[in-house]
C-alpha cells in the first residue's frame, strides 16, 4: 500500500500545491486523483516517485518511507505514463519499451523479447517494433507509453493524464484496454485526470482534490455520485450525476417481459394473442434478433413488411450492462420500451421505462439502507 | 610546368599534398572546438547564468582578427600549423556552443520528465537522451563551423607558407600566374562543399528517427 501521510508541498515561489494531504492508496486497484487544473494532482503523483520532494509529511510504500531507498531504484520500480507519452523520439518503439529493463541491466535480447511481449499485451502490432515514434498515431504512441511503463513489471504504475491528448473514441479504447490489462496484471495504479467521467469509469477509489491541494472527498465512484461530500464535489461531478450513477447498478434484476415479442414467421393466432399483451410488439427475425416495433394492427401473419417497422433503438444486455444502458435504450426507443438481448444479440425480453424507473428507485433504497447499516456499525 | 595543377616548388607540396594539409589545418580545429564546446555547452545548460557571459566571450574572441592571434601565438608555437589552428578552433566556438546549447535545450520537457521518472541519472540522461536528440542541431553547427574553418585556413599564408591552399594565392602574385589563385579558390570551395555534404550524410545516418519533412530542410 502507498500511504500519503499529511503531505504538504510548497514550491520555492510560495505556491502551496498540496496541503496536508493524507491518502491510503490500496494495492492492486486503480486510485484516481481528479480535480480542476492546478489543484496539485501532478505534484502529488510526482511526490510518489520523488520527482518532487514533499515540504512536509511523508510517503510510505508498504510501510517503508520512500526516502529509504536510492531514488533511481525507487523510480525503476514504478512505471510512469504521461500525456503525449513522452517517448524517446530517437529510439525505436521496441527500444523505447525496453528502456527500463535495460537500465536494470537485462541483456539486450531479453529486454527486447520482453518488449515484444508487451507490444502484444497493449494491443500494438509487432510490425511497428522497428518504427520511430513520429511514425505512430497519438493513440499508438500512448499504448507504447503504457507498454514502456509496464516493461520491468513494476508493482506500481503512475499515470498522469495519459489519455487526455487523444480523441474520445481512441480514449475510450485506451480506457477499456487499461481495465483489461489491470484485470490481468493487478497493478497498484495511481491515475491522474481532470475528467470526472474517466475517474468514475476507471477508479476503484476516487480522490477529488480542490484548488489549493486539499482533499475534498476520497470514496469509491458510486459513493461519490450518490453522496458527494459538499457542494464543490457536487458541482465538480456535473449536472447529470444521477444518470451517471446508474452505471453502478446492474440491469440484471430488471423484470423482462416476453409477451410483446413475436417472430416474423409467427402465425395469425399467435399474433392475435400477443396483440392483447401490449400496445406495441417487437418483431424479431427467425433467429430471435430484433427487427423493430410495430402496432399489432400493422402486422399480417406471414407477410410482415420489415421496412415499416419502427427502429428498436440500442438493445442492452442484462447480464453485463447497467441500468444506465437499459434506461438509455428505453429513452431512445420510439415506444418507450428497451430491448434486452443475450450475448449473441438474441432478444430475451423487453422492459418499459416505468419498470426501469421502479428498479432505479429500488436500487437507491438498497444503497441508502446499506450505507445506513455501515454508518450504524 | 605551367599546368593548372603544377605548383611552384617553393610551396613544398604537390597539389594533393596541399589539399591534405588544408583539410588537416581546417578540420582539426573544428574537432578541437567540438571537444571544448560540448562541456562548455553542458555547463551553460545546467547553470543558465553561465550562458550569456560565455556567449559574450566567444563573440569577442571571434571579433579578434587572426593576424592579432598570430602575433601572440608565434611567440609560443613559431610559424607553425598550430599557430594557424588555435584561432580557428577558437572561432568555431562562436557557432558550436550556441548550436549545442539550443540543441540540448530543444529536448521536450515531457521526454526529460519521462527519462527522470524511469530512473535515468543526470549522466545517463545527458548521454543517452539529450545528446542524441541534439545531434541534428550539433551537426547544423558543425556544418557552418567546418565550411568557415576551411576557408579561413588560407590566412595562414601570412605567417610564411602555413596557409595550405592559401599559399597558392601568394605564389600567384609572385610568379604572376593568376591560374594558381583560381585553383586555390576553387579547390577551397570544393573542399567546403564536400565536407558539408559529408556532414549531411552523417546526420542522415545518425538520425533515422527524424521525420523526413524536417530532414529535407537542408
Ligand atoms: N515547479 C513549480 N514551481 C512553482 N509552482 C509550481 C510548480 N509546479 C507546479 N506549480 C504550481 O502548483 C500548483 C499545482 O500544480 P500541479 O501541476 O500539481 O497541478 P495539476 O493538478 O496537475 O494541474 P493540471 O490539471 O493543470 O495538470 C499550480 O498552482 C502550479 O502553478
Ligand atoms: Mg497536471
UniProtKB/TrEMBL annotation, chain B:
Membrane topology term: Multi-pass membrane protein
Pfam families: BPD_transp_1
InterPro entries in the cross-refs: MetI-like, MetI-like_sf
Cellular compartment(s): Cell membrane
BP GO annotations: transmembrane transport
Main localization of the protein described in the UniProt heading: membrane
Domain of life: Bacteria
All residue ranges annotated as the ABC transmembrane type-1 domain in the record: 19-203
Parts of the chain that traverse the membrane: 26-47, 54-78, 84-101, 133-159, 179-202
Keywords: Cell membrane, Membrane, Transmembrane, Transmembrane helix, Transport
A Gene Ontology cellular-component term: plasma membrane
Residue ranges the record marks as coiled coil: none
SUPFAM superfamilies: MetI-like
PANTHER family recorded: ALKANE SULFONATE ABC TRANSPORTER-RELATED, MEMBRANE SUBUNIT, GLYCINE BETAINE_CARNITINE_CHOLINE TRANSPORT SYSTEM PERMEASE PROTEIN OPUCD
Similarity field: Belongs to the binding-protein-dependent transport system permease family.
Protein name in UniProt: ABC transporter permease
Species, as recorded: Streptomyces lucensis JCM 4490
Amino acid at each position: 500500500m502507498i500511504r500519503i501521510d499529511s503531505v504538504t508541498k510548497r514550491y520555492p515561489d510560495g505556491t502551496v500545491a498540496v496541503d496536508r494531504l493524507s491518502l491510503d492508496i490500496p494495492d492492486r486497484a486503480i486510485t484516481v486523483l481528479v480535480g480542476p487544473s492546478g489543484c496539485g494532482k501532478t505534484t502529488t503523483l510526482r511526490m510518489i516517485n520523488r520527482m518532487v520532494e514533499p515540504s512536509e509529511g511523508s510517503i510510505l510504500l508498504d510501510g517503508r518511507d520512500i526516502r529509504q531507498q536510492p531514488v533511481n531504484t525507487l523510480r525503476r520500480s514504478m512505471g510512469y505514463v504521461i500525456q503525449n507519452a513522452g517517448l524517446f523520439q530517437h529510439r525505436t518503439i521496441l527500444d523505447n519499451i525496453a528502456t527500463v529493463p535495460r537500465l536494470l541491466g537485462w541483456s539486450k535480447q531479453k529486454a527486447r523479447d520482453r518488449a515484444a511481449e508487451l507490444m502484444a499485451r497493449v494491443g500494438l502490432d509487432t510490425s511497428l517494433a522497428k518504427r520511430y515514434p513520429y511514425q505512430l498515431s497519438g493513440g499508438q504512441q500512448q499504448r507504447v507509453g503504457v507498454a514502456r511503463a509496464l516493461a520491468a513489471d513494476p508493482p506500481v504504475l503512475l499515470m498522469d493524464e495519459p489519455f487526455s491528448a487523444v480523441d474520445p473514441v481512441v480514449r475510450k479504447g485506451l480506457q477499456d484496454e487499461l481495465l483489461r490489462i489491470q484485470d490481468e496484471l493487478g497493478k497498484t495504479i495511481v491515475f491522474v485526470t481532470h475528467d470526472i467521467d474517466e475517474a468514475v469509469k476507471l477508479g476503484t477509489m476516487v480522490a477529488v482534490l480542490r484548488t489549493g491541494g486539499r482533499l475534498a472527498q476520497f470514496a469509491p465512484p458510486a459513493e461519490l455520485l450518490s453522496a458527494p461530500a459538499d457542494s464543490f464535489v457536487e458541482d465538480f461531478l456535473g449536472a447529470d450525476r444521477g444518470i451517471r450513477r446508474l452505471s453502478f447498478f446492474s440491469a440484471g434484476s430488471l423484470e423482462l417481459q416476453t409477451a410483446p415479442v413475436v417472430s416474423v414467421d409467427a402465425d395469425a393466432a399467435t399474433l392475435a394473442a400477443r396483440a392483447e399483451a401490449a400496445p406495441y410488439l417487437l418483431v424479431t427475425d427467425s433467429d430471435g434478433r430484433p427487427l423493430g416495433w410495430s402496432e399489432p394492427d400493422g402486422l399480417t401473419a406471414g407477410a410482415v413488411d420489415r421496412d415499416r417497422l419502427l427502429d428498436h433503438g440500442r438493445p442492452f444486455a442484462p447480464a453485463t450492462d447497467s441500468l444506465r444502458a437499459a434506461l438509455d435504450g428505453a429513452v431512445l426507443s420510439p415506444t418507450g420500451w428497451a430491448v434486452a438481448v443475450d450475448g449473441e444479440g438474441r432478444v430475451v425480453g423487453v422492459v418499459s421505462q416505468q419498470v426501469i424507473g421502479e428498479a432505479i428507485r429500488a436500487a437507491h433504497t438498497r444503497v441508502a439502507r446499506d450505507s445506513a447499516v455501515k454508518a450504524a456499525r | 610546368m605551367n599546368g593548372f595543377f603544377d605548383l611552384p616548388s617553393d610551396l613544398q607540396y604537390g597539389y594533393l599534398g596541399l589539399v591534405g594539409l588544408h583539410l588537416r589545418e581546417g578540420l582539426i580545429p573544428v574537432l578541437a572546438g567540438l571537444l571544448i564546446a560540448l562541456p562548455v555547452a553542458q555547463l551553460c545548460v545546467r547553470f543558465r547564468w553561465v550562458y550569456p557571459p560565455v556567449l559574450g566571450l566567444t563573440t569577442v574572441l571571434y571579433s579578434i582578427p587572426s593576424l592579432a592571434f598570430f602575433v601572440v601565438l608565434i611567440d609560443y608555437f613559431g610559424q607553425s600549423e598550430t599557430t594557424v589552428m588555435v584561432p580557428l578552433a577558437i572561432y568555431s566556438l562562436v557557432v558550436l556552443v550556441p548550436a549545442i546549447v539550443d540543441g540540448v535545450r530543444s529536448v521536450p520537457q515531457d521526454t526529460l520528465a519521462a527519462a527522470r521518472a524511469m530512473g535515468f541519472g543526470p549522466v545517463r540522461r545527458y548521454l543517452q537522451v539529450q545528446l542524441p536528440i541534439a545531434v541534428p542541431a550539433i551537426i547544423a553547427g558543425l556544418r557552418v563551423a567546418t565550411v568557415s574553418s576551411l576557408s579561413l585556413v588560407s590566412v595562414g599564408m601570412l605567417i610564411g607558407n602555413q596557409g595550405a591552399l592559401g599559399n597558392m594565392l601568394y605564389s600567384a602574385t609572385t610568379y604572376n600566374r593568376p591560374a594558381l589563385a583560381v585553383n586555390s579558390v576553387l579547390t577551397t570551395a570544393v573542399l567546403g562543399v564536400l565536407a558539408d555534404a559529408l556532414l549531411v550524410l552523417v546526420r542522415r545516418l545518425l538520425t533515422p528517427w527524424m521525420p523526413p519533412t524536417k530532414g529535407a530542410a537542408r
